Amino acid sequence: MRLRDEMPVDHRLSQVYRVGAAVCGLLLLLFGCLGFADGLSSFGTDGQRIAGLSTNNLLSGVSVAFGLLLVVAAAVGGNLASTVNISVGVLFVLSGFVHLFLIGHEGNILDFGMSNVVFSFLMGLLVMTFGMYGRVSGGLPHDNPYWRRRHPKQAAREAPISLPQAGIATAASDRLPERRDDHV
Q1: C-alpha angle with apex 25: 22 to 29, nearest 5 degrees?
Q2: Is the pTM of this model over 0.70?
C-alpha cells in the first residue's frame, strides 16, 4: 500500500474524509473536555467513567490533542486530511491492541477498560476508512480522479474521442479495403 501525494485535491472525495475527520475530532474533543470538567486525577486508574468509557486527565489530554489534530486536518483538507486520518486511525487500532493487554496491570496509565479498547478499535477503523476512501483501493472506477492519476496512459486511451479525431478515424477507415467473405 502506497499513498501518493500527487493525487488531486479538488474532487468530491475530499469532502468525505474532511467531514469524517471533523466529526471524529469533535467527538474526541467532547470526551476530553468532559474528562477535564469532571476533575479527574492525572494518572488515576480507579475506573471513573464518562460517556461509558473509563478515563483520567491524561486520557482526556490525549483525546483533546488527537481531536484537535483531526479538526485541524479537516479544516486544511486535501491529501493532508486523508493522511492524518490514516495515521490517527492506525494509532487508535495499535492503542487498542496495546491496552487490551494492559487492562488490570500497573502500566495502564490511561485507565483503559474493555469499553475503551472497543472504542479505540472502532474509532481507528472508522477514521482509517475515511482516510483511505478513494486513495487506497484496487477497484476504483476508471472515472475516479485517483485512478486517472495512477494510470495516465490507460486513462488517455479510454478518454472519449474528440470530433477532429473522430473525423480522422472515419476517413482512415474509408480508405481501408473492404473485406469480402464471398469465397467459401
Answers
A1: 135
A2: no
Q: What angle do CA 160, 133, 51 make, to 5 degrees?
A: 155
Cα–Cα separations (whole angstroms), residue 15 to 48, 79, 91, 154: 36, 11, 23, 27
Half-sphere exposure of 168 (CA within 13 A, CB side): 5
How far apart CA 91 and CA 110 sit, in angstroms, is: 15
| Cα→Cα distances 137→1, 37, 140, 159, 171, Å | 9, 42, 6, 21, 41
Task: Rounding to the nearest 10 degrees, give the CA dihedral for residues 26, 34, 69, 53.
Answer: -90
Query: Do residues 26 and 71 lie in contact, with contact meaning Cβ atoms separated by under 8 Å?
Result: yes
Q: Under a CB-based contact definition with an 8 Å cutoff, are residues 32 and 67 in contact?
A: yes
| pLDDT band with cut points at 50, 70 and 90 for residue 93 | very high
Q: Output the nine-digit C-alpha cell for 94.
A: 495499535
Altogether, the residues listed in the chain come to a count of: 184
Going from the C-alpha of 5 to that of each of 95, 127, 179, the distances in angstroms are 27, 19, 50
Kindly list the domain boundaries of the chain, sorted by start residue: 13-132, 145-174
Cell of 106: 500497573
- Residue position matching grid coordinates 501518493: 4
Of all residues in the chain, the percent with pLDDT exceeding 90 is 22
